[in-house]
Amino acid sequence: MANTIYSHAFLVGCFNGKIKPWMLDKDTKNWKQEIIPNSPQENEKRYDGDKGYEGLCNVYYKAHIDAMIKAKSQVRPKFLKDVSHYVHTIENEKQLISLSRIMVRKDEKGKKIITITHLDDYYLKIVALHVYFFPLDSVFFAIELDDSGSDFNSLTMGHSWLMNWIWEGDVCFCNNTKKTFKELFAPLIPYLKDKTLSNLIEGGNKLKMFQIVKYGRNKIDDKLLYELGTSSPIGCVGGNMWLTPSDDYYNQIKTENAVSAFKNWKGLALVDSFTMLGTVNSFKPVDCIYMYFPLIYLRCIFEKYFCFSRNTCYREDKVKGNLMREIAQMEKYYFYNDISHNFLPNLLYKAMAKGLCINEEREELAKQIKEKEERNSNLLLGAVSVFAIFSIVYDFYSLIKAWWAKATFFQINNSDFDLYPILKSVSKEGGELPLFAYILSILAGIATISVIWYLKSQRRR
């Protein structure tokens, strides 16, 4: 199989720890905040063709840009005050790292069996570590990789290993990889909940991937696009391997998850990855690195995480903030259909959102809202019932008082049963109202308090 002409990837996860932008501001040795200049001069350009804040607002909606990046002279609402991006550049960026995998398992007798697999023709550079802050204490990290020139089969296997390495402990190594990754995450380890890389991710079982690949063909190969997007062995589509997809599944993915606007590139949006495969003269890599990934894919990742985390709390009966207020803020600043004045960013945004199943998560949130509205209606009805109970208690109290004033009313003529002695026996000596009436009033009050407590407990759920 041929090698890639260009290959670049971001491995993304939700950071499982407590960290704030001001903490990284203090660590100037390791972190640099990326602040977009208004109109970049030659010495301020991040890359050739950098549009700056004003240029980006000509392509994307200003509200979208404000919700995703921090710029000079930018005024943002309080909800977006923490949105920022920090970069930790790897000094040995140009050093190639070979990738190996060590699998340790036990046989039937409990004896350890060690298997070492080495990836030939996989050329890896770890470019940088990124940290992205979003509202509602949401923090994401991304490992930026460049593996241009790699063999396609080694590329997909390497991506599969790297997406899963954190959960598999000592499984992945790059030369001295365990040390390399440990050094890479050293600036973030103090902020982890348990200070170990094995619990770096909050939620999910692997990293998500945004990758862009160029190769030397003049036509996009749908089979190769599927294999890249799913990190499957090259040739598995239409073959007879253990990861060979069924015809129905492959055709469904190709039809429902592919996105394309031009003949020289095509994208594939899945739950775990977004892949762009193009010919030599297709998309510009800098557009993907500085716009499509940070401005579109990360937005979808944040929206997905927000919906998923709130739905998970709902299913596990955990309270996480004021859901109605959070949803109102998300609807205002993030949940809208288009993000750009141009068609291509909107096309990519909708494809990525569909791949991540964001609409399905939002539908689950809508069920919560409906249930809360029903509970609020029940609370209103309960409040009316409470007032009704107070009215009944007062009426009952007044009635007994009137009856006691006319004690003969309780006597049952021509009957052996007389209520008057009973009421007299439970009344205070010389009192105007029997103790029996006070007891009934107290019981009614207790019942009222119980109803109020129950309604409040239902509202907290």
What does this molecule look like?
By secondary structure, the protein is of the alpha+beta class. The chain is built from 13 helices and 12 strands. The protein has helices at 21-26, 52-59, 62-66, 152-164, 177-185, 222-229, 247-256, 285-315, 323-333, 343-355, 358-405, 419-425, 435-460, and strands at residues 6-14, 32-33, 84-89, 99-106, 112-118, 125-134, 138-146, 172-174, 208-214, 258-259, 265-269, 273-278. A 9-stranded mixed β-sheet has the order 2-3-6-7-1-9-12-11-10, with helices on both faces. A 3-stranded antiparallel β-sheet has the order 5-4-8. Helix 11 runs antiparallel to helix 13. The chain starts with 5 loop residues before the first strand and ends with a helix. Mean pLDDT is 80; it is low at 167-173 and 426-432.
What percentage of residues falls in helices of 4 or more residues? 40-55%
Distance between the termini: 56 Å
User: How would you characterize the largest beta sheet?
Assistant: 9 strands, mixed
The helix/strand class is alpha+beta
Shape: globular
- Total beta-strand segments: 12
List the helices and strands and how they pair.
Blueprint lengths: L5 E9 L6 H6 L5 E2 L18 H8 L2 H5 L17 E6 L9 E8 L5 E7 L6 E10 L3 E9 L5 H13 L7 E3 L2 H9 L22 E7 L7 H8 L17 H10 L1 E2 L5 E5 L3 E6 L6 H31 L7 H11 L9 H13 L2 H48 L13 H7 L9 H26 L1
Parallel strand pairs: 9-12
Antiparallel strand pairs: 1-7, 1-9, 2-3, 3-6, 4-5, 4-8, 6-7, 10-11, 11-12
Helix pairs in contact: 8-10, 8-11, 11-13
